[in-house]
Design goal:
The protein is of the alpha+beta class and 237 residues long. 73% of the residues lie in helices and 11% in strands. It has a domain of 58 residues: SH3 type barrels, CATH 2.30.30.
Amino acid sequence: MSVKHKVLKDFQLVTSDKKIITLKAKTIIEDFTYKSKGETVKVEKEIIDNNQDYFSFIDWKEELNTHLKLQKVAQPAIVTKKLVPFIETMFLNKTQEVVKEVVKEVVKEVKVENTSNEEVIKKELELDSKLRKVAVTEQYLEDQLKSLSDRQNELEIKEKSINDRESQLNSLQVELQERSDSLQFFKTSIDERSITLAEKEANLSNYIDRNILNDAMNNIRNQGFDVSLFENIIRGL
């Protein structure tokens, strides 16, 4: 059933696009829509409700009475009184029952939808909680991984330092060994030279002693002495 209002007196309406339209008196606004000369204008419900001096709600009973008058039915008021109960019983009451049933169904659907929404919200909250826990765990693992990575870098630096020191020690050890070998060679050379010098000194000493003895023997021989005994002794030396 449509909602109708009657314009009681001219009303200046400002539309959404800033146009001014005059709603003429005695015209009908049906379902908050004003029609005039092929022009259709939407009239907000608030405008009609807030300007009751300009607009009047048309009850279907009044409209029925007016229709009967236009149709020139005898005694329209009496006919209206007889038709109204019949219409209310046959149509309006049933309509109200239908509306009630529809409302019940809508309420059930809303409850089901609310229940579904509550379940969805509950699941979303659970998922959010799980996601937060996962995020915390991920952050913890990332921190641990970073800590392990830093520790690994420190150990690699220390290992490199130890390797460098070990290399230096190996180089020193090689150098010491080379110097030790060189010193040993030098000592051996000195020892060999000492032996050679000792031998040369001994030979030289023997050579000098023999020459001295030979010279002495010659001097004695030249003086006419017999030196054969001394010669035998020298030969035995």
